[in-house]
Amino acid sequence: MDDVQQQERFDALVADDQRIEPRDWMPEGYRKTLIRQIAQHAHSEIIGMQPEGNWISQAPSLRRKAILMAKVQDEAGHGLYLYSAAETLGIDRSELLDMLHTGRQKYSSIFNYPTLSWADMGSIGWLVDGAAIVNQVPICRCSYGPYARAMVRICKEESFHQRQGFEILHHLSHGTPEQHAMAQESVNRWWWPSLMMFGPPDDASPNSAQSMAWGIKRHSNDELRQRFVDMTVPQAQVLGLTLPDPELELDEETGHYRFGEIDWTEFMEVIKGNGPCNAERIERRVGAHDDGAWVREAAMAYADKQATRSQGAVA
Ligand code: BYC
Q1: 162 lines ligand 1 (CB under 6 A)
Q2: Does 219 sit in the ligand 1 pocket, CB within 6 Å?
Q3: Which InterPro entries match (predicted)?
Q4: Residues whose CB falls within 8 Å of the CB of residue 256, separated by 6 or more in sequence, listed in order
């Protein structure tokens, strides 16, 4: 097939809601966009281990500690599925990590905020994982097969994460007045950054139109943000907590909640690297990567030895 026929076949597969697989021809822009988004997503998962990892040793009970450890391990696993999905596009994991470490690829803005209290484990689970689910469920229908399939398992695990965060906050909110205040203070800090996770407003989102035409994104940033607000407001009522937005109000006509203006200047600063914890997160990630060099070397030496053995067996 010549290039025109290849493009026609690709367009037909996307239009017909079929999956594009690694060996299929794809436009260079499609490949690059997927690498950018999947890598950013993978980086978010492994950087996202840090804010919660900081609380494992301070969890209030053995049960809470075991649950938090399992959750943080799940996030490592999500990173691994996603790096594997990105590698099917012809890029090496070490290159992706190098781009993360040198600031040439992004990770989610949300992980540049500090975790100041135990209640933050609840807010991250309820709001951050809640936002992640709303964003990621449609990616299970992404046109690129390996990304879509990775998302199915990730979304199942994220649902558990969201529930455990809700349960932490429910417990605190219905506990002592001090516990309730801790939960409320935490939700106050995480609400607006969670809304920013969905990305810039549609009229300032340079990638959305093309990504939607390619079936990588299924909904716009604003659509998903609205869906998250509509889902979360009733849950806050069940928790007995308020959301820090005086403009939050149900629009009876549309059935959607209206909400206040998001501070997009803060968002831009955070994604440019000037958030409260950007430098700390990257420094710790690079440190962990350097500390793990011996593991990678040992794994390579073992793989080389196995390969030599099996060559010997064939000979
Ligand atoms: N943070 O044109 P736009 C999780 C960037 S982790 C940082 O709308 P796009 C979890 C965007 O990359 C959640 N940067 O972009 C883990 C672009 O810059 P570049 C991670 C952001 O790609 C552990 C520029 O702004 N989830 O679930 O069409 C524990 C213009 O934006 C952000 C994913 O990654 C942001 N929030 O749409 C708990 C989901 N938003 O790249 C939870 C997959 C925008 O051109 N990703 N930017 O330099 C997506 O769905 C899309 O990439 C986005 C952005 C909706 C995030």
Answers
A1: no
A2: no
A3: Aromatic_CoA_ox/epox, Ferritin-like, Ferritin-like_SF, PaaA, PaaA_PaaC
A4: 226, 229, 230, 250
Q: Is 37 in the pocket of ligand 1 (CB under 6 A)?
A: yes
Any idea what DSSP says for residue 216?
A: S
Best residue among 43, 44, 144 to mutate for probing ligand 1's pocket (most ligand atoms within 8 Å of CB) is 44
Its pTM stands at 0.95
Of the candidates 149, 129, 150, 137, the residue with the CA atom closest to the CA atom of residue 71: 129
The answer to whether the beta carbons of residues 68 and 56 sit under 8 Å apart is yes
**Which residues, 6+ apart, have CB-to-CB distance to 301 below 8 Å?**
none
CA distance 224 to 216: 14
- Residue 37, C-beta contacts closer than 8 angstroms, at least 6 positions apart: 211, 216
How far apart CA 112 and CA 266 sit, in angstroms, is: 12
